[in-house]
């Protein structure tokens, strides 16, 4: 026992030792200190102002708002840059640190500048659009008015519409001709309004006009040639030029109102062709002028945006950082004198010197006369769990954490998961061909680690990338297991010498199931290739894999119970060792440990004993003679002893512990009328949460007893069901090998049987797809999930409580991860 | 098939019901209102709201905020949610959802018509319209000179057209007529909505008829109170009441002849559900009647969420959100007294915590 304690501690086995520290920071150096701590990223602050709303906190008004405003501006720039279609320049950000104030001033300047530019260009765009529309109206409306060109009658031109009166009116002409060919005079003036409207509104517009004028109008329209940029949305809009002919002053008012309501812009078109040409010329010249102005403006804006984008590269991060610092500062308390801030938090013990150094640096840099006080305090709260992981171990730790974060200093199953997880996976996925495919994938991910790590991946790819080292190990193990199973896409290979069996006679190749005799030494590694395709292949492999699964299962469950021993020892809980670990060990091993022993003896001795029979009759009639199923001397006696031990173990783990706990409790409180006082009143108001209350909780015997009963029953039943659960190793392995055999024989070999290139190609393609999608993806996933279950349920329920909480230090590095 | 909605409801309505219940959990809570009451400036409000569902709608607003911006953005959120639901909905839910907006349409029509009557700028009026009640040709309402034109030119295209059958007169538009038009339209709308819900049957009919009856009764009381001392004759007044609800028909007879507040009160106190509302008011107090009705309505709307497999939740959610936005308006109008907020979660049952 001494020996175990003196072993050097395993790195990942226990979480880092933590301490609860208090910081007393003078106000003047607070900001810098927090920012240095953020860079270090090893201290988890506790929110001391939990009860306060965001408004009552110290730094809310000026700074946090300022930061929010800044990030809003930055978003605005980003949006603008994006809108302008500029790519962020590829140079890396190698900027000297900009001060926050400076950044803020710069941002304000840039924003002002940009908004001004935008309004200017918008105005210009507006004018440009108007002119463009005018041009189109002139062209199109001109076409409608062409027939009337010959006629130059009296006309009156107004500013925004053209009223055009016909004096000569042909009484025989239809209404259409009245307007188009004004031949003779007419008392009522026929007038027209021309303009342009969005194509989508055109139909409704026409209907509305029709209704208002009760049909006394003529509506002519033609689609505009060019699309016009909508200044609001920056999109191209299709428009329609229209000319409405109507009569009467009342109708004119109505039509104008409708135009206004529909957002149609009206432009005066002179009826006279020469005048029209003149105006068109004017418009065209102004258009070209405006175009150059617009372009210049756009270019100017683009350069400005590029420079802003370059300058403010570090901006978003800086803003975020600043915001995070103030959020942290808000978690600190003012002390009585209002000159210092008080903070509390958790940090790992190894980080103490680093934190102190950072704090000293902060004091020095901010020219503060008073240093920052950093001292360790006691806490009744359970410390957070912090494992220092690296690239490799991280994914395994994640697998364990997904089930539950380890309690502080609890034995960490991730240590064993690193090996057992890929191994159990490989037992189900044993095929070295498939293993090599997986390996290539994993190596690809690892080789491009740097590049993939820095960019944003899709959720699926992200998952794959996160588990790249798990994938690597899984593939290596599945190559190993595949070699043992001797499967390469379900094809056996003679890698380790030739088969131990050979034919009795020459006709063997046809009837390979019969007539094989052993003539050489046993095949040195793994399954003999001759088994493949023989009639006894399945019975042999099934028996092998089934027994193997039980061995693995019993071994892993034993490891789990052993870990519960280490846990109990670490937390010096002798009660758990004596009344939980020992009976559990005895129970499991007297039944399933014994079964494993029988399996091994059977393998070694080559006996033909029926193990089912042995195990079943061990319970049904323990004193009966074993007969031909006897494997070794004294087996009958041993069985009786084991059975008795197992029977004793059940009450052993059920009864003593709750009773002893009760005795301990009554002894502790004997003769006391009052409850125990808390260690210090100071904590009482600071920690109203459960941590403290559970300490002084009354001892409730029935609750403890029921809990223990549930635990014991779970273990006893679990021992059977968990062992059975490990048989999934066999089942999945069987499924995998059968599936790959089907694809190989029924698809690839079948296709190869034809002497047709196309059929062969199709066969190959189907085989490749089936291998890639069904075997490499679906099967990998299912084997992964089953391995996950075996670890979470069968292994971890033996010892792992997993009710801790993670250490989340205040760190800027984590901020960049969250960004976007 | 009453009582068997559970069998088939989720085929079409399940997804959206889940969505709307999710939306509801985003409503501001009592704690939020407490915090909002402590806000001193609009920036504070913005900051607080940014922690709620409204956050993404407000975050890009530059700092000197205007009160209207906040309301605009909050309404925008409601509209976005509504549009999302509408696009996902199938018949008859989509029709049901459309019915919800008709009330706003009526309000918008009245707003524009009244506005043009007083020669306001159409664009300015359009900005004031509730976005849920917009329809294509709303701007052209300004052209109409009388009811008949209004109907013939514009409204015939809108879903409101059938409601107009009762108020097509060639009278000129003036304030009184417009108000009568509004109430007639609303009456027709409520009755139509009521019929539609009855047609849907099941829990929807049960719950919606309760909610709509309350709405109709409240309108009846409001019409009565507002028309006391005006030129409106008793018969005209009687015509504006919706033909369903708890007060129909005998309560209407009594309300129609009321001449002052106390008579209204006497008429209403005969109905147990309204007795509690009126018993809260001291005699002669009519200002806080609105508030009492709102509170009662909110309570009823919250109760609609207690039952599953019906469309009432959509109606209730839209109403609650609108009430919430109204609360925000009250907030900046300076009514800082906490008791003026209607809290939605007082009757809320917590579904949030799953059994461990």
Q: Mind explaining what this structure looks like?
A:
The complex is a heterodimer of chains A (820) and B (356). Chain A has 820 residues and is an alpha+beta fold. Helix content of chain A is 59%, strand content 9%. Chain A has 27 helices and 15 strands. In chain A, strands 1, 2, 11, 12 and 13 form a five-stranded antiparallel beta sheet that branches. Chain A has a four-stranded antiparallel beta sheet with strand order 6-9-5-10. A two-stranded antiparallel sheet of chain A has the order 3-4. Chain A is extended, with a radius of gyration of 43 Å. The model of chain A is unreliable at 90-96, 148-188 and 678-696 (pLDDT under 50). The longest helix of chain B has 26 residues, at 175-200. In chain B, α1 crosses α2 and α10 packs antiparallel against α11. With 356 residues, chain B is an all-alpha fold. In chain B, 63% of the residues lie in helices and 0% in strands. Mean pLDDT of chain B is 80; it is low at 335-356. Chain B is globular, with a radius of gyration of 21 Å. Chain B contains 17 helices and no strands. Chain A binds chain B through residues 53-56, 60, 64-65, 68-69, 72, 75-76, 204, 208, 211-212, 254, 257-258, 260-263, and chain B through 34-35, 38-39, 43-44, 47-48, 50-51, 59-63, 122, 136-137, 139-140, 142-143, 152-154. Chain A: Essential component of the vacuolar proton pump (V-ATPase), a multimeric enzyme that catalyzes the translocation of protons across the membranes. Required for assembly and activity of the V-ATPase. Chain A: Keywords: Coiled coil, Hydrogen ion transport, Ion transport, Membrane, Transmembrane, Transmembrane helix, Transport. Chain A: Residues 100-127 form a coiled coil. Chain A: It is found in: Membrane. Chain A: Its main location: membrane.
């Amino acid at each position: 026992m001494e020996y175990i304690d003196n072993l050097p501690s395993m790195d990942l086995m226990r979480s880092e030792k933590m301490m609860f520290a208090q910081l007393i920071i003078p106000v003047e150096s607070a900001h810098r200190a927090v920012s240095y701590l953020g860079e270090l990223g090893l201290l988890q602050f506790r929110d001391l102002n939990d009860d306060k709303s965001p408004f009552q906190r110290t730094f809310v008004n000026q700074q946090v708002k300022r930061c929010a405003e800044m990030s809003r501006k930055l978003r605005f720039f980003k949006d603008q840059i994006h809108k302008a279609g500029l790519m962020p320049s590829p140079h890396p950000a190698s900027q000297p640190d900009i001060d926050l104030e400076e950044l803020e001033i710069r941002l304000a300047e840039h924003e002002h500048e940009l908004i001004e530019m935008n309004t200017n260009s918008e105005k210009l765009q507006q004018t440009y659009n108007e002119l463009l529309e005018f041009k189109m109206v002139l062209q199109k409306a001109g076409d409608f008015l062409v027939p009337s060109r010959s006629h130059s009658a009296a006309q009156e031109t107004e500013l925004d519409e053209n009223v055009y009166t016909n004096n000569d009116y042909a009484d025989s002409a239809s209404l259409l001709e009245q307007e188009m060919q004004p031949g003779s005079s007419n008392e009522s003036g026929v007038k027209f309004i021309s303009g342009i409207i969005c194509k989508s509104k055109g139909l409704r517009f026409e209907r509305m006009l029709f209704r208002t004028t009760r049909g006394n109008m003529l509506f002519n329209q033609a689609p505009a040639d060019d699309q016009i940029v909508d200044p609001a949305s920056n999109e191209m809009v299709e428009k329609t030029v229209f000319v409405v002919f109507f009569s009467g002053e009342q109708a004119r008012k109505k039509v104008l109102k409708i135009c206004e309501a529909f957002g149609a812009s009206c432009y005066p078109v002179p009826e006279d062709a020469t005048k029209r040409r003149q105006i068109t010329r004017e418009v065209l010249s102004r258009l070209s002028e405006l175009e150059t102005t617009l372009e210049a403006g756009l270019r100017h804006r683009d350069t400005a945006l590029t420079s802003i984008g370059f300058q403010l590269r570090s901006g978003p991060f800086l803003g975020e950082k600043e915001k995070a610092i103030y959020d942290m500062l808000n978690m600190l308390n003012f002390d009585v004198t209002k000159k210092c801030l008080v903070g509390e938090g958790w940090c790992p013990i190894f980080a103490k010197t680093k934190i102190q150094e950072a704090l000293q640096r902060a004091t020095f840099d901010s020219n503060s006369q008073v240093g920052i006080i950093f001292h360790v305090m006691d806490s009744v709260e359970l410390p957070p769990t912090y494992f220092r992981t690296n690239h490799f171990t991280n994914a395994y730790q994640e697998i364990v954490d997904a089930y539950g974060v380890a309690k502080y200093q609890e034995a960490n199953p991730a240590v064993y998961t690193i090996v057992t997880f890929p191994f159990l996976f490989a037992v189900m996925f044993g095929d070295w061909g498939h293993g090599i495919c997986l390996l290539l994938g994993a190596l690809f991910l690892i080789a491009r680690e740097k590049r993939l790590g820095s960019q944003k991946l899709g959720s699926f790819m992200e998952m794959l990338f996160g588990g790249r080292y798990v994938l690597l190990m899984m593939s290596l193990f599945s190559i190993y297991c595949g070699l043992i199973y001797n499967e390469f896409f379900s094809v056996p290979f003679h890698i380790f010498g030739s088969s131990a069996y050979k034919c009795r006679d020459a006709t063997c190749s046809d009837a390979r199931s019969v007539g094989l005799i052993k003539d050489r030494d046993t095949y040195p590694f793994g399954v003999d290739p001759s088994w493949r395709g023989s009639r006894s292949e399945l019975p042999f492999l099934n028996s092998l894999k089934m027994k193997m699964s039980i061995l693995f299962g019993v071994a892993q469950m034993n490891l789990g119970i052993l870990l519960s021993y280490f846990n109990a020892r670490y937390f010096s809980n002798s009660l758990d060792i004596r009344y939980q670990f020992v009976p559990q060990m005895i129970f499991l091993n007297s039944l399933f440990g014994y079964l494993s022993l029988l399996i091994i003896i059977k393998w070694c001795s080559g006996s033909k004993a029926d193990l089912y029979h042995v195990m079943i009759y061990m319970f049904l009639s323990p004193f009966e003679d074993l007969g031909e199923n006897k494997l070794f001397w004294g087996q009958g006696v041993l069985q009786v002893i084991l059975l008795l031990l197992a029977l004793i173990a059940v009450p052993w783990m059920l009864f003593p512990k709750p009773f002893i706990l009760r005795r301990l409790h009554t002894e502790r409180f004997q003769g006391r009328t009052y409850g125990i006082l808390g260690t210090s009143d100071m904590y009482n108001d600071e920690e109203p949460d459960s941590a403290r209350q559970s300490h002084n909780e009354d001892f409730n015997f029935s609750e403890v007893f029921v809990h223990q009963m549930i635990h014991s029953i779970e273990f006893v039943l679990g021992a059977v069901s968990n062992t059975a659960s490990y048989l999934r190793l066999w089942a999945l392995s069987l499924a995998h090998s059968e599936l790959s055999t089907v694809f190989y024989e029924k698809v690839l070999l079948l296709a190869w049987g034809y002497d047709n290139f196309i059929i062969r190609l199709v066969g190959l393609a189907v085989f490749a797809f089936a291998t890639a999608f069904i075997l490499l993806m679906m099967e990998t996933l299912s084997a992964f999930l089953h391995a996950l279950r075996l670890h979470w349920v069968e292994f971890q329920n033996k010892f792992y409580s997993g009710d801790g909480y993670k250490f989340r230090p205040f760190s800027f590095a984590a901020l960049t991860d969250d960004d976007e | 098939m009453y009582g068997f909605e559970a069998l088939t409801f989720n085929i079409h309505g399940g997804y959206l019901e889940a969505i709307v219940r999710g939306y509801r959990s985003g409503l501001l809570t009592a704690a939020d209102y407490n915090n909002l009451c402590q806000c001193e400036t609009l920036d504070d409000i913005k900051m607080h709201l940014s922690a709620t569902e409204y956050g993404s709608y407000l975050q890009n607003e530059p700092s000197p905020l205007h009160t209207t911006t906040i309301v605009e953005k909050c309404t925008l959120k409601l509209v976005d949610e509504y549009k999302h639901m509408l696009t996902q909905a199938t018949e008859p839910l989509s029709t049901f959802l459309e019915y919800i907006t008709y009330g706003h349409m009526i309000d918008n029509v009245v707003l524009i018509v009244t506005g043009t009557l007083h020669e306001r700028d159409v664009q300015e009026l359009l900005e004031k319209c509730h976005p849920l009640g917009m329809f294509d040709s709303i701007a052209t309402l300004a052209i109409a000179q009388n009811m008949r034109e209004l109907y013939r030119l514009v409204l015939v295209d809108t879903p409101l057209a059938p409601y107009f059958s009762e108020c097509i007169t060639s009278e000129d538009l003036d304030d009184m007529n417009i108000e009568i038009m509004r109430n007639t339209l609303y009456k027709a709308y409520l009755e139509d909505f009521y019929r539609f819900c009855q047609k849907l049957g099941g829990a929807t009919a049960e719950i919606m008829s309760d909610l709509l009856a309350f709405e109709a009764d409240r309108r009846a009381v409001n019409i009565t109170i507002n028309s006391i001392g005006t030129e409106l004759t008793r018969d005209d007044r009687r015509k504006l009441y919706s033909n369903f609800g708890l007060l129909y028909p005998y309560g209407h007879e009594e309300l129609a002849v009321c001449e002052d507040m106390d008579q209204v009160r006497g008429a209403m106190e005969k109905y147990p559900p309204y007795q509690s509302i009126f018993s809260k008011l001291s005699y002669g107090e009519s200002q806080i009647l609105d508030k009492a009705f709102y509170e009662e309505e909110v309570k009823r709307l919250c109760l609609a969420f207690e039952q599953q497999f019906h469309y009432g939740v959509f109606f209730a959610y839209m109403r609650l959100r609108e009430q919430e936005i109204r609360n925000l308006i009250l907030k900046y109008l300076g009514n800082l007294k906490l008791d003026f907020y209607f809290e939605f979660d007082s009757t809320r049952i917590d579904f949030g915590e799953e059994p461990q």
